[in-house]
Amino acid sequence: MHSETEQTLPSPPEKSPRPGGSADRAARLAVTVFPVLVLVAGALGLLTPGTFAGWGTNVPYLLGVVMFCMGLTMTLGDFKGVAQRPWAVGLGLVAHYVIMPGLGWVIAHALGLSPQLAAGVILVGCAPSGTASNVVTYLARGDVALSVSVATVSTVLAPLITPPLTLLLAGEYLPVDAGSMMTDILKTVLLPVLAGLVVRLVLGRYVDRVLHVLPWLSALTIAVIVAVVVAGSAETIKSAAALVLLAVVLHNGLGLALGYGAGKVARLGPPASRAMAFEVGMQNSGLAASLATAHFSPLAALPAAVFSVWHNVSGALVAAWMAYRSRAAEAAGSAEVAGAAGAAEKG
């Protein structure tokens, strides 16, 4: 399953960990255009908040559209991958739901965030994997199959994990109705995803014809969600923008680093460690924004809106760096082998 551009972005063909050619160009275009699109939407929400007045109640339905599109991109093979690598997928799931919620709580305390912003940052941390994580893993020459499996499981289990985690960590800041939140996640995430999967299974050949359109439909929908969220707290953004950006950058950056570190400590290998970095550090901020708007306030949804832009930008940059390091290591290894072969011939 793929986010925030969350398999909502063009997914790598055949889940290959080696990007190249037209697929690579399409993926790079997606992770370049999506942040720009969301940034423009946020600017519209900030400059013309009246345009989106009263749209807040539509956010859960908009998220449902994104999740339905995600379900349409899924196949049964995504679930088979979980059974084939339970240890690695389990590690990714635990790392995701331990590292990011914990970081959210620590950052909220360290920066002395207001209750609304603190709850929003923690809620982002408690969300499942981001929708763009699979594409960014692909660009980083990472283990895309592992990325898909972790994202799938984290999203399916979100109704059971996100509400109690939010209650545990954000309950000291604001009242959290975990039961109501669980119901909302079931209605806006799990049911649309399952509906999309069923439609894909029944009408697969017809869905295949429009798969190239779904990522952009999802991206546009997420952009509208961001515009609505920003418009709802436009008056307070100027005073809190710098602090929220700092919180988001720290949250995302530390998540990427600790996710990669978890893969290294578990000796999963470089490609799988790259996948772990993005499955931990990238969040379904569309879901976080929807839940924050419905259960807290538009201001609490602001960290999710900022995260939506930033984690795609940072993910693309980190993926480019990882891909460069991977190619350099391969080139060095090839040169070493060639040198050893030449020495053997002379001997």
TrEMBL record:
Membrane-crossing residue ranges in chain numbering: 26-47, 59-77, 89-111, 117-137, 144-165, 185-203, 210-234, 240-263, 275-296
Pfam families named in the record: SBF
Annotated membrane topology: Multi-pass membrane protein
Nucleus found in the keyword field: no
Coiled-coil ranges from the UniProt annotation: none
Protein keywords: Membrane, Transmembrane, Transmembrane helix
Signal peptide range: none
Name the UniProt record assigns to this protein: Bile acid:sodium symporter family protein
